Each structure stands twice: as C-alpha cells, then as structure tokens.
C-alpha cells in the first residue's frame, strides 16, 4: 500500500506555476495603482496571519488570495516606476526567470564538484562584466584575480576587510586573533556597512578613521595621507582604505587614483565600493570615474541595485585571488574531492564567508543576454538623462535648490524653507502613496534624495513626481 | 518619438515565464535520467560559453537551448532522489513558487518601512516554527527573543559569535576591537564553519578549543568543564560554546542540557547548531534531542537542508534580541524613519551582518501552508524510516559495517576492506552517475555517508542504491 504523499506533482506545478507567473505579470501591469510606500501600521500584517501554523495542507489558491488581501497592503513597491527612495533595487523579467531556473535546479554550488556549471558560469559572467567595464586584466579569472558573487556590498566590504587584516598581519590574525592595532580609513560619507564590517572583524570602531571631504563630499587625499602618517607615528598599523564611487548621501566619487597611490605607498588594502554607481561603468563615457581602479585590491558593485538583476547579487573582484582564498579556505575531510585536489578549479566557498551558495549567476546571465551590452547601456543612459532633467527643473525653481550637482542618477535637493519643512514635505508626499522618496543630511542639513533607476521608469513618472513635490510644497508653505 | 526599449513586457513575461515553468516541470519528470554527479572536466562548461558578453539582445529560447545543451551537463543534481551526498539541500514545488513570488515582488526588506510585510511575515512564520518545535517561549518574538532568517548556518554561527563577543566584553569590542583573549569551545566534530567564524570575528583559531568526544562522537561535558577551568586559570576568558544537533560526519548529538548548564555557570554564550537535524524537531518523538534548549542563547537550523525549502534559508533564534540588536545596529541618517523611531517594529538589518534582505519568509510560508505540519512530519518520518531500513541492510551484510547507529536520516558505514577500498568504491559508483554519495573520516578511518532526505525519494531509490553499492563492491574486491 502506497502511503499518503503530500508533495505537489510536476503536473500540479505546471498549473500552479503558471498562475503565479500570471499573478506577477498582473502585478506589473497594475503596479502604479498601489501606494508606493506601504501605509499599514506596525503589527497590522502580523495580526492578520494565524497565530499558529496550519496542521493541514492548504491550497496555492488560498495563498494567492492571502497574498492579495493580506500581504499586498504591507508591500512597499520597490519595482514601481514611482519609487525614488534610497538606492533603487531594480529587477527585470529576465532576471526573475533566471532566478526561477536557479530555484528549480536547486543546486548548492559550495564547491566546484557540487555543480561545475554553478561555478563556471559565475566565473565566465564575471569576466564578461569585468570586460564590459574595462577593468584591469588582473581582476579577471584568466589572470591573478577573479570575481565572485556576494549577497550584498556590506558582505563584500567585510570580506575585503578580513582579507586585508590577514595580509596586514602576515596571515596570522586568523590563527592568533588580533594582536596589534590595525587602522582602517573611510570618508565621513562612506556607507555605514564599512563601520559595521570593522566591528565584526574585531578591528573596532575606535580604529576607524573618518577622513573629511571636500566641497563635493569626496574624500580629501591630503587628509588621508596626513592621518596615516599620524597613526604610524603613534605606533598604529594602517591597513585598509575604502574609496566610494557614489556615496549614499550625495553620490560623491572619491578621488580613486589619488587614494590608490597612497594605498600602494603605505601598503594598505584598497577596496572600492561602487555599490550603486558601478553599473554606469559599463558606459564608456562614465568609465573615467574609476580611473585608478588598477591600484585597487578589491572592487564591488551591486547589479541588484541598478542593473535589472533581482536582489541579492553583489559582484566582488580581487586582483589577487590567492590572498582571498588563503584567508577563507578551510578543507574538512567531508568536503575533500578529486577536483579540488587537482587545483584546477575554483571552490567559491573559499572566496567568502558562507559555505553554501545558490546558483546566482544564472540571473546575471539571463539579464546580460536579454538586454545585450547595448540594451543595458541604453537604459542606464536614459536614467541619467532623466536625472539631469529633474536637476534642471529643480535648478530653475525659485523654491528649491540643488544641493550637489548630480554626477549620475541621484539628485540631492531641498526646499529653501528649512529642515523641518523638508521633512514635513517628504512625509506628506510619501503618505499619499503617489511617489516614495527619502532624505539624508549633508553638512548637518536635511537633503531630499531622488534616485532614478527604476526598470520601467519613463519621463512621465519623473515629471509627475516633480509636479507632486512642487504642488505639495505650495500647499504646505 | 519613443526611444527603443529593451525591456520584456508583462505579456512577453507571461509567455516566457510559462516556458520556464514547463522547463522545470520537465526537469523533475526526467531528473533520474541525468547522471547525479556531473561528469564534466574542469573548464569544460566555461569553455563552452562565449568569451565576451553579447552586444545584442538574445532570446529566452536561446537561453533555454543553452541551458539544455551547455549548462545541464555541468549540473550535479541535488534534487534527484538518487542524491545521497553531504547533507541534502532539498526543495519542493511550493517553495519554488514562494521564491518566485519573492523575486516578482522584488522588495528589499532591510527595515520595517521598506516593506512591513517582509518583516512581519518573517516574524510570524518564525514564531510558527518555534511553536512547531516546542521551543521555549523566550525564543518567540512575543517574549524577549525572536527569530530571523539568515542565509546559512555558517552566517548564523558567526552572528552568534559576534553577539557573544560583545556581551563578553560588556559591549566594548565593537568599539575598541578585541583587547583580551576570549576563548570559544566546540567539539572535534563541530562543523568547520565555527572555526571560520572564530577567524572572521578576530578571536583566532588558537583560542578555539576542540573538546574531545565520547564513543558516539558527542562532546564530553566533563572535558569541556575541565578545559574552561584550565583556561580561566591561565587568565583567559571563556565566552562561547557551540553544541551540535547532528554533526556532519556522524550525526552525533551533543549533550545539549549538560553543556547548557556549564554555559550558564560559566557565563558563556550557548549557541546550538542543528543545521540538518533541526527539521526533525517538528516531530514530537524526536524533540527530546534538544531537551535543554531553554539554556541556549541562540539556536539555528536550515529549512534549506531538509524542510523542502530552497536554498538559502537558515532560521536563527535568540533568547534575548536586545543583545543581538545592540551588537549589529547602526542607524545612519539615510535610514531614519518614523516607524523605527517609535520602537514598535523590528528592523531586521539589525539582526544580522548584511544590510539588504530579500523577502525569504515567503517560501517558508508557502512550504508550511502547502504541507501543513502534518505533511512535513509525515515526510520526515518516512525519510528516517528509510534510513533505518538502509542501516538494517548494512548491519545484515557480511561485507559492510555500520560505523555509528543512525539517530535520524544519515547512515555512516563502510566496507570492511579498508580505507582505500572504500574511496575506490565510492568514486567508482559516483562516476557511473547512478547515485551520488560522499565520505568522511571518523577516528582516522574512511567512512561512507548516505544521507536520506530528498524530497521525492521513495523506498525503491534506497533499495537500488544499496544494490549498486553491494554489486560494485563485489566486482571491485
């Protein structure tokens, strides 16, 4: 007698899967009808769900019903063309399909042998990307370096910090713990993830120096140099510098080459975080922003921000993969295998913190092939053009001012009526659900941010957004 | 004039998406026709792909063709019912659908406000799971603790280590770096990820003690106690102990309660890693394996191993969420928002290393609702029964021996002809592609491992596997 089987059959999956595909297509067709920023109160979603798990099987139809009725009110619509908050985290239909294939295959590519394709597609696609951005040869797998997919830029920065820590201690800190005071350097505008990484790596925030910035909010290399000399004089050990291509608050681009030269001279690991702006480097006219990248030890950006690839997908390159592998490699008996022992393969679990890994390069592969380099460049240029339009409208307005000239697709601006007014303006607009944007502070003042990078954004969305901001400001004044 | 647009439309997505759904259904219908372990040589997949990214757009049909022709030969089929290697990383159709919804929505739930549902579904579903496993109240969000989804058990262990480091240094190590010698304790059988975590956290491997095990490969609490006393006498600071429920090599279960009592007495953070076996705790008859869990500070397991949920999905609970949040919280201006300031919401980015996060609880929600608690228990029990059958066949054979009595679904066994023979036997079988299993070492001797946890495994698969192993051994002797 065959026992009861609770699994969904392939035939049922065909049927239910197509319902979900249609549900997603419907969602994108109607996405502008939802309030961009979820309007629910804390606890509202949780309280709508049963306190205990169901004992008996429920149907996919019931789940779809609950998605529509209970979950959707709690969604902030990151894929809406009216989403201008933070840095976007855009996706695209080809990326969703690539990720679906990955879920379907369900391989765990921790080492080469556990699915050679999961490793080799990743290696090849990251070499493609390196070439698309005219990266130095050393960052390619065919040379001394190579790329690997990490979950986020936070993790990439932490990974760089740990490898840097190992190099600085002559590969002793993994074994002995930290026995000297290492010092890391960022600017006052660097993303908070580096501070978090410095804490996790046992360096300590007190040993992180925040170098002041120039009038464009870019790190001042003269002050970096001065601080490093001071720290050396105090018996400390400078070991790591992070440069940023596109800071979160103002899209500042640190002087990549000047910092790199200091790093070389002072023997510091040089990590470049291009989380959001990195995508633009595929356009030759913007590539000059990372001139000097050949001086870097590691470089990362997030295709899951602006390159139509769904979260999570950070790409991280190193110029010298041996240092990275020596830092993260552990080979217990249960993972020994013939391919690893030949030394002919990459085992990517030695390139990062986690052991297990998903086949994430498939979505990148789908995205790059669907758009072609040409299509990717086209849309990035469009977004930058729309951002420049928006900036011009702000510049022409008598009530608003541009705070920083936008280099790419983020506009930092504010109403002239002061901090409280700007926050009130932003909250009032966000509560309408028509558009969603966020704020930061620069030089102690509130600044509004409009990030233009949504997959399906068109000129009309930017125009409507600017109208809403102007009209609301007039009413509130 | 409307400019060229390279995006896929919702209508095209409906069509292409359904092709991919069918492709996945076809795959599962034919999965047993593929060699389980990929038979390609290093470089073969990479060399089959173009050296450069395409300039022009390619079609989804071309990608599907390449999937079939170029990628599939490089896949090791983790979802095959003939996969018995490592710990399985099973998935199920409902999980694939839940993950597809997550990809489709494309929300980035770093903080509550960026999609309240992404936070609150996670909180609720992890409370469900805690209840399903009869976890102590303190681990629930309604009490002092709560659960969060991490990518892997490696990251969960690292997260616990960092929080433990902070507690042990009175929340000073994040700021000052490590200024004293902290010591962590695991057994000789604990997973290598804890060693990796100890390195990353700046503790140093030299400050990690490997406590010896008893005849069942479980940690000896008397030796743990002795080592802690010795380290204290030497002026060191014991701060962290990891107990394992189901070690990788032999499925040993450490004495959870006895270790917990030592941790309480010595004021050590007690982390329990139940990565693979944790799923079985939803069956009341196996729950006794974690008696004493109420003494733990943190507990984690991987629904992406044995609970039909696709990678990555680790669940991690703490008894005191304030300690965790105090360890990982950073609040830059650009993430400030009203909901966070009320203190009424969880911002999960403060519960882990990364900032960004995917809506991963959807797949767990789909899985638990599709199977119901009843269905999940049914299949776990089936797997354990099949493992016991296999063990009995081994025990009855005159050529093979059971190395460790299997407590749950992993059988450790070997042929009596010695180490070299066992490795040769395993490699010979794996190269046929009929089944795939792996080895480890226990007490210095090679041991073969059969892990029985594939979603679609049936009795016939286990019988065939045992026949193949026996027949091949006869031929090779």
Automatic annotation (TrEMBL), chains A, B:
Record-linked Gene3D superfamilies: Aspartate Aminotransferase, domain 1, dopa decarboxylase, N-terminal domain, Type I PLP-dependent aspartate aminotransferase-like (Major domain)
Cytoplasm keyword on record: no
Keywords: Decarboxylase, Lyase, Pyridoxal phosphate
Pfam families assigned: Pyridoxal_deC
Organism: Draconibacterium aestuarii
Family: Belongs to the group II decarboxylase family.
Needed cofactors: pyridoxal 5'-phosphate
GO MF, any single term: carboxy-lyase activity
Protein known as: Pyridoxal-dependent decarboxylase
Signal peptide annotation: none
Keyword Ligase attached: no
Gene Ontology cellular-component terms listed: cytoplasm
Modified residues (N6-(pyridoxal phosphate)lysine): 305
BP terms from Gene Ontology: amino acid metabolic process; carboxylic acid metabolic process
């Amino acid at each position: 007698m065959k026992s009861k089987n609770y699994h969904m059959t392939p035939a049922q999956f065909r049927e239910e899967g197509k319902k979900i595909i249609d549900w997603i297509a419907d969602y994108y067709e109607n996405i502008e009808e939802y309030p961009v920023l979820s309007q629910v109160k804390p606890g509202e979603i949780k309280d709508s769900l049963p306190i205990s798990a169901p004992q008996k099987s429920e149907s996919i139809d019931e789940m779809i019903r609950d998605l529509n009725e209970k979950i959707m009110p709690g969604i902030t619509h990151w894929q809406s063309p009216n989403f201008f908050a933070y840095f976007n985290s855009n996706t695209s239909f080809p990326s969703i399909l690539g990720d679906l294939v990955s879920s379907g295959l369900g391989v765990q590519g921790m080492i080469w042998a556990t699915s050679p394709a999961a490793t080799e597609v990743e290696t090849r696609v990251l070499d493609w990307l390196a070439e698309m951005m005219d990266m130095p040869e050393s960052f390619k797998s065919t040379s001394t370096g190579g790329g690997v997919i990490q979950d986020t830029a936070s993790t990439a920065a932490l990974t760089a910090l740990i490898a840097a820590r190992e190099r600085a201690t002559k590969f002793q800190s993994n074994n002995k713990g930290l026995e000297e005071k290492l010092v890391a350097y960022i600017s006052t505008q660097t993303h908070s993830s580096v501070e978090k990484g410095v804490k996790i790596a046992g360096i300590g925030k007190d040993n992180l120096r925040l170098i002041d910035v120039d009038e464009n909010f870019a790190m001042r290399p003269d002050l970096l140099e001065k601080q490093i000399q001071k720290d050396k004089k105090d018996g400390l050990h400078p070991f790591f510098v992070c440069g940023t291509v596109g800071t979160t608050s103002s899209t500042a681009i640190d002087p990549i080459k000047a910092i790199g030269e200091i790093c070389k001279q002072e023997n510091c690991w040089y990590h470049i975080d291009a989380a959001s702006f990195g995508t633009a480097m595929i356009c030759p006219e913007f590539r000059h922003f990372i001139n000097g990248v050949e001086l870097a030890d590691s470089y990362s950006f997030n295709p899951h921000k602006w390159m139509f690839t769904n979260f999570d997908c950070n790409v991280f390159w190193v110029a010298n993969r041996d240092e990275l592998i020596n830092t993260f490699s552990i080979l217990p008996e249960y993972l020994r295998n013939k391919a690893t022992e030949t030394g002919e393969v990459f085992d990517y679990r030695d390139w990062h913190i986690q052991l297990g890994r998903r086949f994430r390069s498939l979505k990148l592969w789908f995205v790059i092939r669907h758009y072609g380099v040409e299509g990717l460049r086209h849309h990035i240029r469009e977004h930058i053009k729309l951002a420049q339009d928006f900036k011009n409208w702000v510049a022409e307005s008598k009530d608003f001012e541009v705070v920083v000239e936008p280099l790419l697709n983020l506009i930092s601006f504010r109403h002239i009526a002061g901090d409280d007014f700007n926050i009130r303006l932003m909250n009032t607009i966000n509560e309408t659900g028509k558009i969603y944007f966020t704020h930061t502070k620069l030089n102690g003042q509130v600044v509004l941010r409009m990030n233009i990078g949504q997959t399906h954004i068109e000129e009309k969305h930017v125009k409507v957004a600017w109208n809403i901001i102007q009209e609301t400001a007039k009413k509130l004044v």
